[in-house]
Amino acid sequence: MALTDVNPYPDLHCMWPSEKVRPFSLYGCQQKCFSSSQSSNLKEVLDELVPQEQKRVSEFKKQYSDTVIGNVTVDMIYGGMRGIKGMVYETSVLDAQEGIRFRGKTIEDCQKELPKAKGGEQPLPEGLFWLLVTSKVPTQQQVDWVTKEWNNRAHIPQHVVTMLNNFPNQLHPMSQFSAAITVLNLESKFAKAYADNVHKSKYWEYIYEDAMDLIAKLPTVAAIIYRNLYRDGTAVGAIDSKKDWSWNFSSMLGYDNKQFIELLRLYLTIHSDHEGGNVSAHASHLVGSALSDPYLSFAAAMNGLAGPLHGLANQEVLIWITKLIEKIGENPTDDQVKQYILDTLKAGVVVPGFGHAVLRKTDPRYTCQRDFALKHLPNDNMFKIVSQLYKIVPPILLEGGKVKNPWPNVDAHSGVLLQHHGMKEMNYYTVLFGVSRALGVLAQMIWSRALGFPLERPKSMSTDGLMQLVKKQPTQQTQEKAKAA
Ligand SMILES: CC(C)(COP(=O)(O)OP(=O)(O)OC[C@H]1O[C@@H](n2cnc3c(N)ncnc32)[C@H](O)[C@@H]1OP(=O)(O)O)[C@@H](O)C(=O)NCCC(=O)NCCS
C-alpha cells in the first residue's frame, strides 16, 4: 500500500482530506496524536504536546525514512513544482475537491464548533489559532486566554509608528505593512535568544513568544497604515482589554458596526491558512528554515502575498468589477458581462478571482462569504454582479480549454463584502488578508522549530542538465511501447 493512501491520524480525523478513506493507524493502535490538556494557557498545553509529537514524528521517520512517495516529471519542474510532495506542513491540508481543512476541520465545522463572541455567529480567530497550534477545538476559557494574551502584547514601539507616519502616501499599504513587520524584529525574543546561544531544543519556545507578540501587534500596525492613508492620520485609539482581537482591530480601523465586526471575524478565520505550498506560506516556511526570526519570515510571506496572482487578487477583483460598472453600469445584462470577460481575456489578462493552482471546485472560502452576503446583503448591486460572474465566467474559461480550474476562489468575493460595509479602499484589502495569514504560518513555524525541520534546500537543475538527465531515462511513451511489444 502506498503511504499516501493511509490516514496517520485516525482517531482525530485531523489532517486528512477525505472521510471516504478508511482510517488506518501507522502504529496499529488508536493513540491520540495530541494531549488532552485542559489548561487555558497555550504555552502549558504546548509544553505537553511538543515531546509527544516529537516522539511520534521521530518514530515515523525512523520506520519509513526510505519509502518512496511520488514521482517527479519534467512537466512538474517547469510547472511551478505543482503536485510535488516536498514539504511537511501540519496546520492545514488542501483537498482539490473539498477545499481547506484546518487540522481536519472544514470551514463549516469551524463555524459550528469554534467559540464565538457573545451574540456572534462567526468563529473567533483566536479559537482557530488554538486549533491550528494544538489540533484541538478550544473551550471558551482557552479562547478568552488567547484574547487576553494578544491584548496584553499589542503595544508597538514608537520608532515603528514614526516610520509608518513618515511613509509617502503613494507607498502601497502592503509595502508599508511588510516594512513595519521587518523593523519590528528588534522585538524578536528568538533572535535575542539565538544570539545568546540558546540550545536548539528550546527554539520553539522563543518562536512561540514571537508568534504571540507578532499576531498581537499586527492589527495596530495595519490600522495605523489605514488611518494614515485614508483617515487623515487620526489616532487608532487604545486596545479594549475586554474585547476580542477582531473587535479591537475593527475599532482601531474606525468601524463599530456589529455586522462588520462579525464579517472581520469570519474573514480573519478563513484567510489564515491554505496548507504549505502557496506563495506566502511557503515563503515564510523557507525563510524560517534559515532560522530567520518570525518577524523576518512573516515579512517574506507578506511580500509574496502582495503579488497579483496571490493575495493581491482581492484588490484586482474589485478594481476589475469597478471598471465593469464604469463601462456598462450597475445592472449589466448577462451578454454585456460576457463581452466584458471576453475583452479581458482578449487583452491577455487573467480574470481575477477565478482559478487555482490546487483547487478544482468552487473554493469553500468563496462559498461561506457568499452565504454571508445572501444573508446580510442580498440586494447589494456589486454582490449581484459577483453572482452573475459566478454563473458566466466558468463556462467561458472552460471553453478556452487551458484553465484547469474555472471556479471562483476566495478573492472573488471578499472585496465586495468589505465595500458594502464602507471599506472602499481596495488597495488596502490585502493587508487584512495578511493579518489573517499570520495565524496559519506562525502556528506552523512553532511546529517547524519544535520538530527540528532543517534548512530548506531543494535541488535545482539547468535546462542543459535536465536534457542530459532525461536522455538517460526512457520516456513514458517508449516504456508503454516496450510494454505493448
Ligand atoms: C491562481 C492562478 C495563478 C493559478 O495558476 P495555474 O496553476 O497556473 O492555473 P492553470 O494551470 O489553470 O493555468 C493554465 C492556463 O490558464 C490560465 N488561467 C488560469 N486562471 C485563469 C484566469 N482566471 N483567467 C484567465 N486565464 C487563466 C493561466 O494563466 C495559464 O495560461 P498559460 O498556459 O497561457 O500560461 C490562476 O488561476 C490565476 O491567475 N487566477 C487569477 C488570479 C487569482 O485569482 N489569484 C488568486 C488565487 S487564490
From TrEMBL:
Q: Where is the active site?
A: 310, 356, 411
SUPFAM superfamilies assigned to the protein according to its UniProt record, in alphabetical order = Citrate synthase (SSF48256)
Listed GO molecular functions? citrate synthase activity
Q: PROSITE patterns given for it?
A: CITRATE_SYNTHASE (PS00480)
| Cellular localization per UniProt | Mitochondrion matrix
Kindly state which keywords UniProt assigns to this record, in alphabetical order: Transferase, Tricarboxylic acid cycle
Alphabetical GO CC annotations of the entry are:
mitochondrial matrix
Return the similarity comment: Belongs to the citrate synthase family.
Q: Which NCBIfam families match?
A: cit_synth_euk, PRK09569.1
Q: How does it assemble?
A: Homodimer.
PANTHER family registered for this protein in UniProt: CITRATE SYNTHASE, CITRATE SYNTHASE, MITOCHONDRIAL
Name it: Citrate synthase
Q: Give the organism, scientific name.
A: Didymodactylos carnosus
